[in-house]
Amino acid sequence: MTLDVSITVSRGGEFTLEMSIRIEAGETVALLGPNGAGKSTAVASLAGLLPIDEGRIVLGNRVLDDPAEGVFVPPEEREIGVVFQDYLLFGHLTVAENVAFGLRSQKEEPDAVDAKTAVWLERLSLARLADTKARDLSGGQAQKVALARALIIDPELLLLDEPMAALDATTRVELRRDLGEHLSEFPGPRLLITHDPTEAFLLADEINVIEEGRITQVGSADDIRLRPRTRYIADLAGSNLLVGNASSGVVTVGTHVLHVADTAIGGSVLATIHPRAVSVHRQHPEGSPRNVWKTTIVRIEHFGDRVRLQTGEPLALAVEVTPAAVDALGLELGSDVWLSVKATEIGVEPG
Amino acid sequence: MTLDVSITVSRGGEFTLEMSIRIEAGETVALLGPNGAGKSTAVASLAGLLPIDEGRIVLGNRVLDDPAEGVFVPPEEREIGVVFQDYLLFGHLTVAENVAFGLRSQKEEPDAVDAKTAVWLERLSLARLADTKARDLSGGQAQKVALARALIIDPELLLLDEPMAALDATTRVELRRDLGEHLSEFPGPRLLITHDPTEAFLLADEINVIEEGRITQVGSADDIRLRPRTRYIADLAGSNLLVGNASSGVVTVGTHVLHVADTAIGGSVLATIHPRAVSVHRQHPEGSPRNVWKTTIVRIEHFGDRVRLQTGEPLALAVEVTPAAVDALGLELGSDVWLSVKATEIGVEPG
Amino acid sequence: GGSSDVSDEIRVSAASSLGEVFIELESAFEAANPGVDVVLNLGGSALLREQILAGAPVDVFASASADTMAPIVDAGLSEGSATVFAQGFLAIAVPAGNPANIDGLVDFGNEELLIGLCDIGVPCGEYGRQVMSRAGVKPAIDTNEPNVRSLLTKIEAGELDAGIVYMTDVIAANARVEGIEIPDAANVAAEYSIAFITEGPNNEGAKVFVEFVLSEFGQMILAGQGFVTP
Amino acid sequence: MSRRQPRIAQSRPPIVFSVLAALGVVFFLLPLIGLLVRTPWSDLVSLLASDVVIDALVLSAIASVAAVIISTIVGVPLAWVLARLEFRGRSLVRGLVLAPLVLPPVVGGAALLFALGRRGVVGEPLYDATGLVLPFSIWGVVVAVTFVSMPFLILTVEGALRNMDSRFEGAAASLGAGRWTVFRRVTLPMIGPSLAAGMILTWSRAIGEFGATVTFAGNLQGETQTLPLAVFVALESNRDAAIALSLLMVAISLTVLVLLRDRWLRSL
Amino acid sequence: MSRRQPRIAQSRPPIVFSVLAALGVVFFLLPLIGLLVRTPWSDLVSLLASDVVIDALVLSAIASVAAVIISTIVGVPLAWVLARLEFRGRSLVRGLVLAPLVLPPVVGGAALLFALGRRGVVGEPLYDATGLVLPFSIWGVVVAVTFVSMPFLILTVEGALRNMDSRFEGAAASLGAGRWTVFRRVTLPMIGPSLAAGMILTWSRAIGEFGATVTFAGNLQGETQTLPLAVFVALESNRDAAIALSLLMVAISLTVLVLLRDRWLRSL
Ligand SMILES: Nc1ncnc2c1ncn2[C@@H]1O[C@H](COP(=O)(O)OP(=O)(O)OP(=O)(O)O)[C@@H](O)[C@H]1O
Ligand SMILES: Nc1ncnc2c1ncn2[C@@H]1O[C@H](COP(=O)(O)OP(=O)(O)OP(=O)(O)O)[C@@H](O)[C@H]1O
Ligand SMILES: [Mg+2]
Ligand SMILES: [Mg+2]
User: Fold this and answer.
1) Is C126 a residue whose pLDDT tops 70?
2) How confident is the model over A280-299, as pLDDT tens digits?
3) Mean pLDDT of chain D
4) Which residue in B250, E74, E176, E213 has a CA-CA distance of 20 to 30 Å to B12?
């Protein structure tokens, strides 16, 4: 049971999604991307709610959609479990009826349906709400019902469109664990859409990054984290991404020159610098780093036990330091500082 | 312009929200709480969409709702900007029309409306979508429109119900900054509902935690982080929360005894231990920590460059270590380990 | 109402069974009295009566039966009594070609056939029943139609095998139905009466129109459509 | 603070609305008052306690309920097809559905006669083959009444289907629900109030239908004479009886409708 | 891979639906065929080219459009009040609104006469005070037609309002929109298709209305004789003309409706 997708779908004339993706049985692929990138569009196409314009969707040995061949399997025959981004719960039905909907539709035995429903309600702490009409749920409750409704049917493919966005932080942590366990038991391919890189890194075997309707990077969590190929991915991973020109161990970004460890590379490159790889000094530092320059702090943000500094000309870099360092160095907005980065800390890849 | 609220609202007979809250002009209060705690219910009441059963809502010197006095100011006269959890965009109107809706309703000059709308569309990178019907937006785009629609009207009170839940990670970071700036300029009180503790800690002056319709803790980010009063809050802050009995420098949790620094406290207490304050050893450690015990690893989770261990009997604790430590110690599921915590690292408060 | 040219307009409420002949009377009258506009108000006699009782601004009322006229006279809405201006005899109507081979009134007792009359209370229904009792036939009725038109529609369409209507209707139906005469002994005459309404906006015109209907010319037009003139 | 009843969220009408709505109520009230003023209250019971009335009542009840049932069974699918399928000739089909609304009922009845009567286009072969005659029977009444009233159901339901967000149907299908299950468990409940409104319109139109019925089915007490036919006949002969009957119709219908609607709508 | 047109997401009907819908279409088609078969095609033009027809056409157009306008202006607020306000006597008001549906039109016309005629409960004082007589004028036609057709609008719109999620109205209000603005910019567009359906029902009922009009307004050519009344007169004197007229009505109405609906619904 492998999902093999290569599709072109246009939406309202303005937007076109053009993507290929392959998910093996038992593999979770996360689809990560900015708002409006086309993630939900992909879900709608896979689920059969939005026929594709070109290409093919193949699940196992079944062609689900292929306009060139005139094949289109309707949604109810696709055996795909979907958590929709906006849930699409049936407001007139109770929570239990919503969860049982799929099984009942598939004509399972009423007793079996009730039993399974009870299990899932319990699993998602929804038992107390079993008889509440779905339209009377809070946002997070509704999302849990949507999850239970999709997971209970044991489909051949799972499509989860931001299945935890509305959950509170602790429920999310618990559910992330539970979902992880559930996913690892689930035999088919699964596609997880999320905005939370942690979620993607934790739950997915492979990450596909989608931007403006195109897949821009595919790889493991580490590939994405360490070798981001676009500004969006770099921001996501917390890295600084610089576009420059390399020749014999030197990368020129704008007017600034960076020394890098890789002397073989040349031409247009992507250079990445992790924010924690940058050191901050009040005086010109002595020592090994080959890259040292002077700049100004243009923003200071406190994130719990980290502080993020944004520096200005000549290189806009994000730098992470400890609160203690901020105090010790007396850093504040507008402070002049010296930054240093070891050449070995700068990742370089052909752009 | 101070918001002073003390209300009782029941919802469908099952759920009752009973809360008091006071927000000064220029202050941001975050309302943090698990799903179904009553946060959106509070928003609906403040906005005038759900009349309260008892109590009073006062904004500045205007009573907005007071059933005992028979006062009820309808929503359109309350001058409250609301971002609803599910946006409630007008699907038949374009993005620009949605954003301009409030100003147009308030009979502002068409030119001024257009100008302001353009500014806000630009600010939220929505300009390209100005003429798109709201029903054709992606989830995150819709949320940005909802934000713009609420912020443009310059209300006297802002209610933001999870205004960034659907945004992609990088937009969220940017918007968090922009929103922070906007909030600091905004003269009235503002209430921010969020599931993201970071968001709350970054944007709010005070945090109110709500659980099951009741406020369970009020305080600054540090209060909440360092002295959580309920399990939910402890989980949220990442701390371990233990309920025990203190007497002369010893806290008994179940059958286990912990030494603490505070020898004065007695009776029922809440003890908090930060996961990173716990050290992990393969042998009984030597040295200063007074609390040392043996346990087993029941779960291992990798979070980027941290690893979280869950340990079992006699104390279920979350422990955070580095991946390097995991390798060095050869930790795996079921490993027997020794844990140590310094007495000074255990926070103790009357429970 | 209330416009200045009211004297040039005469409103005539006429029973719908008088529709065709009154359209002819209207054009003849207008030809004889240039500048006068006769406006017909055609409807069931009872309906027209109700309108007049409720104060309808009508000048002349021509009814299909004296009974319908009576309440108007009783209410003093008409000066003096009403005048009978025409009579109409009844006839058996059958679909073109007479598919059921109706011979006469006796066939009305045949349960096998589909027979229709006008309903009790409707003039043609009352007359029809009188004919039946005079002929000593107990009709096997399948439908009591609320008016002649409705009855004729069904006969024309072949749904009914036979019914009793006015001779004038058979003539007006132009071969789409066939008429079978009812023997004089069994036949009855419907009396059409006319009155002018004192409350109407155009009393003068009303009188002139009623006189015209009763005049030799008017009676000739009536006779031409199969009405029997007194 | 005193103990209070929980307050109900009450929408407030724009002021013009109250005025216009009041105007509307008066407009509907006046004729009813007119009717009540003319009602022969003292003879009411004697006028209404007759075989004719009871027969007509029973027949009207049967025919109108049958019309609602048939209209729902046939009309809802038709509405669905009109609302959801793009096909060549859709405008034409919709036009066809509207025809009975536009045709004067008497002409509609005549058209039915031409089509389904003993000598009709379809009726004649039908009669020759089976001996079945629709006119002059309760079947004829049902056909006539359904013909005239079904369009109300179709149009109301079509409007509601177009108003509805069809993504919920997609969600149901993705859960494996077949088209029929989707319709029954999602679509139908979601358009509930409009369907109810459509059924009420249909029933009301059916119970008040006169022209098509009398033309197509005739008027025989106990077989085809519905209440409106009885009223019409009484109008000719006994005005008091006609008014009494009309009032009875209004009273019965309103009782039924008010009971039904409040039940129905509350449960939704 | 060949270049292709983008495919349109097509809902597929449950199979029974197709069958039932087809049945419905046939049911509506048959009588129309019956009518077409009997139509005097050769004389059609001469039959229709007369003053009577043109007068009736104009009058019908005016009266039916007026009925739709009045019904919308008065009926939408009334529907809103019925759907959104909880008040004592709501069932009664709703019942009142349904009365014209249930009353046989002729009785409805008579009731109007009793109320608004020159000797009517309200008509008499009105006449004494102003000399205004509603019956037997175009105003009478409009009143009668509106009385009979407005309930269709009210019920359809009420159903749609109940179907609608009123939280959107709350959102609009919180943005400072007054009740009227909320209604005009949020409520009305959201119930669009149902309102359209209601207006079409109203218009169709108005254009086909016969009984109440002939009773209340009379049947005066050029003054109160609408198309259905002309058909009635023609039925007495010249049946071919009646059928021709009826066909004309159907044709005109369908043209208008098809054009209108397609325009209207597409824009929504
Ligand atoms: N029904 C629609 N009609 C027309 N365009 C649409 C429709 N739905 C979405 N779009 C457009 O298609 C693009 C992709 O939308 P999609 O919902 O797939 O984004 P997404 O990746 O899911 O974003 P988000 O993270 O915000 O949910 C967007 O630009 C959006 O405006
Ligand atoms: N319309 C309603 N009718 C009845 N009960 C409701 C309604 N809306 C919410 N509730 C109930 O009220 C409680 C509080 O809901 P609320 O929406 O305020 O929660 P919340 O704190 O916003 O949760 P979340 O974080 O999931 O959005 C829940 O138990 C919910 O089931
Ligand atoms: Mg999306
Ligand atoms: Mg909420």
Assistant:
1) yes
2) 888 887 766 678 888 998 88
3) 85
4) E176
Mutation choice for A interface testing from B84, B168, B202 by most A CBs within 10 A: B168
**Nearest chain B CA: its distance from D188 CA (Å):** 23
Contact between B279 and B201 (Cβ < 8 Å): no
Is the per-residue pLDDT at E5 higher than 60?
A: no
pLDDT in tens, C48-65: 888 888 888 899 999 988
Whether residue E9 is predicted with pLDDT greater than 60 in this model: the reply is no
> Per the structure, how many domains does chain A have?
2
Tens-place pLDDT, residues A75-117 = 989 999 999 999 999 999 999 999 999 999 988 999 999 999 9
CA of B35 to the centre of ligand 2 (A): 8
pLDDT at E107 over 80: yes
What distance in Å separates the CA atoms of residue B307 and residue B339, rounded to the nearest whole number?
15
Residue ranges per structural domain of chain E: 56-100+149-207+222-266
Chain C residues in contact with E141 (beta carbon < 8 A): none
pLDDT tens digit sequence for B191-237: 999 987 767 776 888 999 999 999 999 998 767 766 677 777 766 76
Cβ neighbors of B316 (< 8 A, separation 6 or more) are B310
Nearest to D176 among A88, A92, A105 (CB): A105
For residue C212, what pLDDT band results from cuts at 50, 70 and 90?
very high
B142 and B286 in a common domain = no
Q: What is the model's pLDDT at position B238?
A: 65
CATH number for the domain including A336?
2.40.50.100
Ligand 1 atom 8, closest CA: B136
Which ligand is closest in space to the CA of residue A17?
Answer: 1
Q: Same domain, yes or no, for B195 and B252? A: no
Calculate helix-pair angle for E192-208, E239-267, nearest 10 degrees: 170
Beta carbon of A91 within 6 Å of any ligand 2 atom:
no
Ranges of chain B with pLDDT below 50: none
D88 touches chain E (CB under 8 A): no
Structural contact between residues B48 and B73, judged by C-beta atoms closer than 8 angstroms: yes
Are A and C neighbours with ≥3 CB pairs closer than 8 A? no
ipTM above 0.85, yes or no: no
- Per the structure, the complete domain to which residue A116 belongs is given by 3-237
B102/E176 CB distance under 8 A? yes
In this prediction, residue C2 carries a pLDDT of 35
- Starting at the edge strand found earlier in the chain, the sheet holding B28-32 runs B71-72, B62-66, B54-59, B3-11, B15-23, B214-219, B206-211, B28-32, B190-194, B157-161, B80-83
What whole-number distance in Å separates Cα of residue B307 and Cα of residue B300? 7
Q: Domain check: are A208 and A278 in the same one? A: no
Residue indicated by tokens 């259905």: E228
Cα torsion angle, D12, D18, D22, D28, sign: negative
Average pLDDT value over all residues in chain C: 88
Out of A237, A254, A282, a domain closes at A237
* Residue B83 and residue B97 in one domain: yes
Window 165-184 of E: residues touching D by CB (8 A cutoff) are: 166, 169, 178-180, 183
Q: Which of A237, A264, A289 is the last residue of a domain?
A: A237
Instruction: Decide: B213 in ligand 2 pocket, CB within 6 A.
Output: no
**What contacts D176, CB < 8 A, 6 or more positions away?**
A76, A79, A102, A105, A106, A153
Tell me: do A219 and A269 sit in the same domain.
no
Alpha-carbon gap, residue B302 to B321, rounded angstroms: 10
Q: Is the same domain home to A254 and A139? A: no
Query: Quick one: CA torsion of E81, E87, E89, E92, rounded to 10 degrees?
Result: 30
* Interchain CB distance below 8 Å, A80 and D174: yes
At residue E2, does pLDDT exceed 80? no
* Same-domain status, A200 and A251: no
Q: Which residues of B touch A212 (CB under 8 A)?
A: none
- pLDDT score for E37: 85
Residues A55 and A119 in one domain: yes
